What does this fold into?
Amino acid sequence: MQQFFSILEDTLVFHLWLKKDKFLKTDFEVKRRDVDSKALRRIKVYLEAFKQIIVRGGNNLQTPKFHQMLHITHYIQRHGCPMNYDGGRGENFGKIKIKDNAKLTNKQKDTLNFDIGRRISEEDVIDQVSNVYYQRNGYWPSSYCNETDIMENANRIQRRSTSFTASNTVSNTRPRYILTCDVASNEHDDNLPEEINVKIDWGGSSKTPYQTFPNDVLQKLAHRLFVGSPNIGGRLSTDSKVKGYTEWKKDGVLYRAHPSYKIRGSWFDWGLFNWVGYNDPIPAKIMMMIDLSDSDISTDVDVNPDATSILEQVQIFPHLTPEKWVVVLPCKGSALDYDTGSHTRFGSKISMWYDLHDDSDVFIVPWSILVGPCFLFENKNYNGPKVDGKYECDKKGCSILPMSNWGNLFL
It folds into this structure.
């Protein structure tokens, strides 16, 4: 089974390698005392493993298409990347324009070409009339006039619908909620912890979601922002109002952290963050988004006024700054080695396994250290029973590399 999945993965990686727009010339050069180039050797290894694992009926793999892959390196040296001479678009055009319209004819040999041309002409006329109708009235004349082919062929409609799409994808300029905190200290016993009451104002009952953020996350965030020594990391004043957001955009990528997105459940995106002490970015789930740009951050030493002599001996360690911050649930360090993972998991080139923290082990980090998006799924036992409405997780997560990087893993 592991060999079968390895072949499937190599096939995906090989497919993405063929779609690259640039190739290294040294990968196709035959070095001295070598028979094949680096690229050809890798292709032969892949094809040989494919023949041993995959069983095909008929002539099995004794076909021209399978043998032709041995000549791919020669074609790349002559014509460049395979996308230069890929015939897939022409085949797709023949299916949409010829085969699909041929199904709408009486399939008579003598008039087949004429009937196909007539169907194409009728389709163009209906598209043009529907577009004019939409331009004048703002809606389609029929529910059958907004098909994918019409939308793709009408550039004017694409520009008109951009304004509607942008309103749903651009990050909010105004905060979605305001976070405040009441801290009550015990006047008679300083050893007792402070009582913290966290409040979130969504701007009205109609805007308040059915489900809010986890209480453990809110309590830890409130302790970090409003409780503690100001000289160690900074502290907000008790009357500060923290602006909260549910979506932000960075480098063209939209990130969401919503406890109840469109009444369909929570939506907490994963991202890659530069973490101190690690060479590679660490995946982390974005739980909350807050902006401290307008908050009053104090780093003054919180001591007894009568003991002013010790102020010179206290050091200040600033951390909080007036900028955007995110509350994240990160993984426990770097990716796991294959040997340290479970025997039920296969080694992979395009995925990495991580140890996960508990749901309450959150951190607050600057938004600026976000590197990019990350796709990570938790290893949950979906075949087992639910506990408190959730499937059990062994605190392991699998992160999939971006598909744009798969092609670089073939060689």
Observations:
- Residues 2-84 form one domain.
- Residues 231 and 300 are 6 Å apart (CA to CA).
- The two ends are 23 Å apart (CA to CA).
